[in-house]
């Protein structure tokens, strides 16, 4: 089968041919029809963490058709269309046994530690990591594997009470693909008091179209943005979801919280921030990071999509080739993608 791998830091994707895996036990081989492109893959390609060896077959937003199964598989059959949960653990610890692979200390993520979505097929170690997506467009469904799940988990942390309650002012900083998905999730859950913050007017208009009640262009600087957000939210936000998580945006998010507010940083590789520690107890503030999500949360966000309540973010489809993958990652790195790119077989 063909794979599209990064062979050195910062280099282009390269096509090669490897043996097609033969599943055994609970393993399932999925022929990939749609693979979403995530900004995390830019960091992997550029070796920003230095934690993973090359070559890397990245890609962790995957949808496709089952083409082979191991002899112990009972929950999937050849021809089934499935969405892949990529955030796997070791498979043997207590967390993994409880369905909390995301807490495993020895992650085995597809597209990072194991071969992922930039290939003709992917070997999934157990059928429990495959979800049916009947009635959902495959290209859009593929984005739920990271964008949808990460946004859903972050929203769950940022919203204090029942979604849709009138006293919840939620601010979303950053309206790239992940930020737009967070706004879509908030809207699907009945939330209406959503303020979107970005430096790009085109993306802010997309945010408005997905349900943001107010939009703020923060390009004039954090001081003006802080004043505008506090005014827009009637005194401050109950929750801030920071999809950028630079030092500047983290401080902005912290400064606009009202009493008992919560800052949920999501963006990776952002920088450093200094916070006034006295404000944390005096305003009873919480800072809680959010990274990916559980298999149960994945099921919930897929159910939300299947219900028709989740607004669709813009999806740009391109063919899966080495050249298109390289171009997609370059476009992401340069901030030229309004929504999500999905590569198709």
TrEMBL record:
Its EC number is 1.1.1.329. Residues 10-343 form the Enoyl reductase (ER) domain. Its cofactor is Zn(2+). InterPro entries: ADH-like_C (IPR013149), ADH-like_N (IPR013154), ADH_Zn_CS (IPR002328), ER (IPR020843), GroES-like_sf (IPR011032), NAD(P)-bd_dom_sf (IPR036291), Zn_alcohol_dh (IPR050129). Keywords: Metal-binding, Oxidoreductase, Zinc. Transmembrane segments: none annotated. It catalyses: 2-deoxy-scyllo-inosamine + NAD(+) = 3-amino-2,3-dideoxy-scyllo-inosose + NADH + H(+); 2-deoxy-scyllo-inosamine + NADP(+) = 3-amino-2,3-dideoxy-scyllo-inosose + NADPH + H(+). Pathway: Metabolic intermediate biosynthesis; 2-deoxystreptamine biosynthesis; 2-deoxystreptamine from D-glucose 6-phosphate: step 3/4. GO terms for molecular function: oxidoreductase activity; zinc ion binding. Pfam families: ADH_N, ADH_zinc_N. Catalyzes the oxidation of 2-deoxy-scyllo-inosamine (DOIA) with NAD(+) or NADP(+), forming 3-amino-2,3-dideoxy-scyllo-inosose (amino-DOI). Belongs to the zinc-containing alcohol dehydrogenase family. DOIA dehydrogenase subfamily. This is 2-deoxy-scyllo-inosamine dehydrogenase.
């Amino acid at each position: 089968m063909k794979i599209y791998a990064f062979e050195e830091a910062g280099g282009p994707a390269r096509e090669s041919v490897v043996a097609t895996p033969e599943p055994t036990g609970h393993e399932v081989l999925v022929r990939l029809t749609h693979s979403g492109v995530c900004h995390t893959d830019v960091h992997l390609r550029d070796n920003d963490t230095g934690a993973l060896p090359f070559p890397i077959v990245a890609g962790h937003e995957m949808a496709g058709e089952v083409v082979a199964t191991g002899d112990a598989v009972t929950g999937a059959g050849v021809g089934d269309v499935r969405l892949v949960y990529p955030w796997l653990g070791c498979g043997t610890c207590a967390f993994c046994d409880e369905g909390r692979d995301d807490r495993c200390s020895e992650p085995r993520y597809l597209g990072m530690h194991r071969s992922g979505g930039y290939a003709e097929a992917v070997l999934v170690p157990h059928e429990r990591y495959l979800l049916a997506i009947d009635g959902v467009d495959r290209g859009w469904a593929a984005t739920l594997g990271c964008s949808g799940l990460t946004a859903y988990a972050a929203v769950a942390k940022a919203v204090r009470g029942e979604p849709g309650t009138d006293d919840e002012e939620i601010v979303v900083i950053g309206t790239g693909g992940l930020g737009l998905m967070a706004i879509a999730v908030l809207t699907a859950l009945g939330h209406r008091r959503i303020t979107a913050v970005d430096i790009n007017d085109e993306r802010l208009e997309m945010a408005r179209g997905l349900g943001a009640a107010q939009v703020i262009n923060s390009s004039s600087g954090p001081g003006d943005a802080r004043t505008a957000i506090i005014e827009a939210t009637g005194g401050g936000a109950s929750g801030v979801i920071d999809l950028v998580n630079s030092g500047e945006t983290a401080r902005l998010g912290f400064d606009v919280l009202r009493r008992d507010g919560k800052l949920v940083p999501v963006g990776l590789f952002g920088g450093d921030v200094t916070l006034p520690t006295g404000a944390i107890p005096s305003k009873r503030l919480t800072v809680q990071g959010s990274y990916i999500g559980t298999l149960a949360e994945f099921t919930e966000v897929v159910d939300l999509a299947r219900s028709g309540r989740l607004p669709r973010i813009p999806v740009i489809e391109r063919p899966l080739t080495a050249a298109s993958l390289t171009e997609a990652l370059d476009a992401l790195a340069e901030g030229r993608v309004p929504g999500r790119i999905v590569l198709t077989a």
